[in-house]
Write a structure and sequence with these properties.
Two copies of one chain form a homodimer. The first copy, chain A, is built from 16 helices and 14 strands. Chain A is α/β, with parallel strands linked by helices and 448 residues long. Chain A has an eight-stranded mixed β-sheet with strand order 2-9-8-7-6-3-4-5, sandwiched between helices. A four-stranded antiparallel β-sheet of chain A has the order 10-11-14-13, covered by helices on one side. In chain A, helix 9 links the parallel strand 7 and strand 8. The first copy, chain A, is globular and about 65 Å long. Chains A and B meet through helix 1, helix 2, helix 3, helix 5 and helix 6 of A and helix 1, helix 2, helix 3, helix 5 and helix 6 of B.
Chain lengths: 448, 448
């Protein structure tokens, strides 16, 4: 039986056999559906699904212990009051705001601007804020805008966030890897990769970084490197795509300035997320795109045009809930997430202490060749093992030892991370972390 | 001052002048930001914005008179009860459902399946339903999947819905126009356009139609043509993309079967919207993609992979509200929208009666060369004028006569619709319709 997609040449009308049932083949669809990163994530989720009782250092979702369903109604009511009391809307306009198609750039841009002023000391014109269906949509929009033709490419520190790689895949934007060290992106390698891309006739448009507690590596950039990156980007005339989902969850020693707050030349496009602060299910994020357009307006306005073809406005009810969340916390996300931040801080300490206990100088497995990094905050620690940590080992680890983690090699385009694993600790209790690390130690003892 | 996008060749490192402020140019961005359709819509919105007191036959948004903000809380509560009572979730699982990242394919797929059984007599496996961030995202996903390389094209009846054209633009999918008659898509022309595309070495993947009360033309396909389209699609081995936002709003004589309900070979990909039934701001829609994949699973699963790179899950709180809306109406959207349907039906009659009164055999402007179509339902009527109806005339109409409408030529790729206007009557009262038609008659008298 022939079918829509089996017609690989596609130029001749099919025979009457085609009158039967449609059957599609992934080979006939856009290559992104067969993307190795996605396939890998499906496989990892499968392994996790088959071992529901394992301790999971794999789940990257936020801590959920403080969520209350009743808060949703309170947030909605707070946003409604804001529309009436602060914005002066009448009953019909309020109703229209909740129910109708709305402003493509969003309803809570002004509240996001207040939050950035409060929490990041960032002065942002609300008109430069585009509220999006999660930060994921914002990344797709920016990459779609920057991918004009086959010559456009972006750069990203590797290992890299899979959501960024997926967004790039969707718009056929090639991502050129840049090395990452313990202090984040390697600026010398960035300059070299830009040079190489240009030598190949390509147009490097932007470089993607997560300067604070990156996913998956947990590393942060120094303030000197932040300034160095901005200087390099200006010299090479590329944009900087700054993604900041984790800066609220610092280790207690305060935070470094965001790239955007150091940006004096509209060099930085800033991605913001509420997934780890308000809640992930809302799917509300944003991008600050204050770059002026030669014809007037801001880059945010061009992105809004693209958004009007992708999802129209971001869900009004989701924005109202997040808007209420901001309003009820005086537009300080840091204030709103004090308890979560403490959980992550405690868990980070528990993980680092536990690793030292098993594999450190006085631990039973000292000298086994296990090492780990020391993130100053965030949700992730990377452990280097003395043996290959691939999907087969993960399956073995889950089956035999009841502990899940993420093989780091999935976050690299080609080679890299073959002996490394990511430990995510955001949803675990101290007790489960200790149990899980004990199981990890047993795996190491078994394999070493 | 040079800038990121002014480097049009992009291969040489810029001079130190680039250290200044970033300035972007639309010429350096993806062509979709300069799409003529979008530019036109911006212009039309500008004209409308400058004439807030004009009677507007331009706004395509749903009637808002029956919306109540208090219903949002009731919907959320109904969905929460459903999770507990029908699905048997415990408190933690309920909380996780509301707040965490969720199933990419959606939370309310089973309720949508019930709605389709109740309202469309469609038996749909919930696993073939992908809940999306409005129907707009569903169109982008399907077109993204079908656009494998430069040879893939889709066909669409013209005049065509601008959201579909915009979605195609975003993924660089060319749309080949097919003629539309008073009974919808012209099947002979469809066959001819498929033949021509193949002769050019292209791969026609699918044909997009709105069989019931199309936007912008208001026309519907006969049952015979629906069957004919399915036979043609099977013979030519293309998919049919059926978009059905308006079928609830029939004129009272009942409805014809959807293409999907006549589809015995998984030939139809069915787009559903809640924008005109629950509410537009929610941004909840869906696609039924039950096509089997050769490697197992359904087309819906492949689309979900793409969605995981675009917006992840559809907003949980938006889905919960729409889920509650369905549950509180026994999963019948027809039942939920009885009042709205009556408004649209009455307004359609008022418009047709009014047009007859002004321009019909006994009207004062009889013989002026004005004609109009007779949609059996929906939200739109198309009027043909004896003179060119372009954006300049719209500006004149707004300025001099205080009445807004949409020039039809914007819904055509190239030529077409130059003397036609779309009248949308969904948000008007009978009184305003009469006032507006009087003003339209004055415009005709002025220009004829």
């Amino acid at each position: 039986m022939t079918s829509v997609s089996e017609q690989l040449d596609g130029t001749a009308a099919p025979s009457s056999a085609a009158l039967g049932d449609v059957r599609l083949d992934t080979a006939g669809l856009h290559a992104s559906v067969s993307d190795p990163t996605l396939t890998a994530m499906t496989l990892l989720n499968d392994i996790a699904g088959r071992h529901p009782d394992a301790v999971s250092f794999a789940a990257g979702r936020p801590y959920e212990g403080f969520y209350e369903i009743a808060a949703l109604g309170d947030h909605l009511a707070a946003f409604e009051r804001h529309l009436v009391d602060e914005l002066g809307l009448g009953p019909e306009a309020v109703r229209r705001t909740f129910f109708q198609y709305g402003r493509t750039k969003g309803l809570i841009h002004h509240l996001i601007s207040r939050h950035l002023a409060n929490d990041e000391r960032l002065a942002v014109d609300p008109e430069s804020v585009l509220v999006t269906t999660g930060c994921q949509e914002a990344m797709v929009l920016v990459l779609r805008a920057l991918r004009r033709d086959d010559r456009d490419v972006v750069l990203a520190a590797y290992p890299s966030y899979v959501g960024f790689l997926g967004a790039a895949r969707l718009v056929d934007m090639p991502v050129r890897p840049v090395a990452e060290g313990p202090g984040g992106i390697d600026l010398a390698d960035l300059a070299e990769q830009i040079r190489r891309a240009r030598a190949e006739g390509l147009r490097p448009r932007a470089c993607y970084v997560v300067p604070d507690f990156a996913n998956p590596s947990g590393v942060s950039m120094s303030e000197a490197d932040r300034r160095g990156l901005l200087e390099l980007a200006a010299r090479e005339d590329v944009l900087v795509l700054e993604d900041n989902p984790y800066s609220m969850f610092h280790g207690g020693e305060g935070r470094l300035p965001t790239l955007k707050s150091l940006d004096t030349g509209h060099r930085v496009v800033y991605f913001g997320s509420f997934a780890k602060t308000a809640f992930a299910g809302a799917r509300v994020g944003y991008v600050v795109a204050d770059q002026p357009m030669t014809g007037g307006g801001l880059f945010a306005d061009e992105l809004a045009k693209l958004k009007s073809m992708l999802t129209l406005n971001t869900s009004t009810v989701a924005q109202a809930v997040v808007g209420g969340f901001l309003l009820r916390n005086e537009c300080s996300v840091e204030r709103a997430t004090v308890r979560e931040a403490q959980v992550y801080r405690d868990n980070l300490r528990t993980v680092l202490t536990g690793l030292r206990g098993h594999f450190g100088e006085d631990g039973p497995l000292r000298g086994s060749g296990v090492s780990w990094n020391q993130p100053a905050g965030g949700m992730f620690v990377v452990v280097t093992l003395p043996f290959r940590a691939d999907d087969a080992l993960l399956e073995y680890s889950a089956e035999r030892f009841g502990v899940l983690w993420t093989p780091m090699h999935h976050f690299y385009a080609g080679d890299g991370g073959s002996h490394q694993i990511r430990l995510s600790f955001s949803v675990l209790s101290a007790e489960l972390i200790d149990v899980g690390l004990g199981r990890l130690a047993a795996l190491v003892a078994d394999r070493a």
